């Protein structure tokens, strides 16, 4: 959720986008950052500590897959909320380096979702199947 210092330092050490260093860009970025923060925090609250930090990979499952807010709005709200935080921060600082790094983050999360999504679906499918057979 929180931006690493290296991200901020990379942005500060690079030139700003000419024509983007205006109030509208700053406030657009701030709004995107706020939405991203809402998704990240609400995801954490919905999943709890264990659900957030890969409990399912260690066999510690929730009673059922979480489908309440923010998961009823979009899949993987923590990933996309985090990406929105990076994007918002980049816009607030009119940083082309930040935008490029945000794209790298988004691509990384997209790849992670390709593997994690089917895994999560399968473990909860198996859990439901096991509960029904008891």
Automatic annotation (TrEMBL):
GO cellular component, one term: endoplasmic reticulum membrane
One Pfam family hit: PEMT
TM stretches of this protein: 24-49, 97-117
EC number, as in UniProt: 2.1.1.71
GO BP term (any one): phosphatidylcholine biosynthetic process
Pathway involvement of the protein, from the record: Phospholipid metabolism; phosphatidylcholine biosynthesis; Lipid metabolism
Keyword Ribonucleoprotein: no
UniProt KW keywords: Endoplasmic reticulum, Lipid biosynthesis, Lipid metabolism, Membrane, Methyltransferase, Phospholipid biosynthesis, Phospholipid metabolism, S-adenosyl-L-methionine, Transferase, Transmembrane, Transmembrane helix
GO molecular function annotations of the record: phosphatidyl-N-methylethanolamine N-methyltransferase activity; phosphatidylethanolamine N-methyltransferase activity
Subcellular location: Endoplasmic reticulum membrane
Topology of this chain in the membrane: Multi-pass membrane protein
PANTHER family in alphabetical order: PHOSPHATIDYLETHANOLAMINE N-METHYLTRANSFERASE
Protein name, as recorded: phosphatidyl-N-methylethanolamine N-methyltransferase
